[in-house]
Amino acid sequence: MLKLENVSMAIGDNTGEAREIITGINLEFKPGKLYAITGPNGGGKTTIAKVIMGIYKNNSGHVLLDGEDISNLSVSERAKKGIAYAFQQPPRFKGLTVPDMLNIARPGLDQVGIRKSLRDVGLCPEDYQDRDVGPGLSGGEMKRIEIAQVLARDARVSIFDEPEAGVDLWTIQRLIGLIIAKYQNSPKSTAIIITHNERVLPICDEIIVVDGGRIDKQGSGAEIWPLIKDDIECKVKLQCRGEIGYEF
Amino acid sequence: MSFKAEDMKLISTITDLTDIPSGAINIRVDGQAVIRNSSPNISVGPNDDGTGLKVEIKAGTRDEAVHVPVIVTKAGFKDKVYNTFIVNEDADVTIIAGCGIHNDSHADSGHDGIHTIIVKKGSHMKYVEKHYGEGSGRGKKILNPTTDITVEDGASAEMELVQIAGVDDTLRSTIARIHENDSLKITERLMTHDDQRAESLIDVYLKGTGGNAQILSRAVARDKSSQVFKAALIGQADALGHLECDAIIMDQAKIQSVPQLVAEDAQAVLTHEAAIGKIAGEQLVKLMSLGLSEEEAVNTIIEGFLK
Ligand SMILES: Nc1ncnc2c1ncn2[C@@H]1O[C@H](COP(=O)(O)OP(=O)(O)O)[C@@H](O)[C@H]1O
Ligand SMILES: [Mg+2]
Question: Which residues in chain B are contacts of A76 at CB distance < 8 A?
Answer without folding.
Answer: 288, 291-294
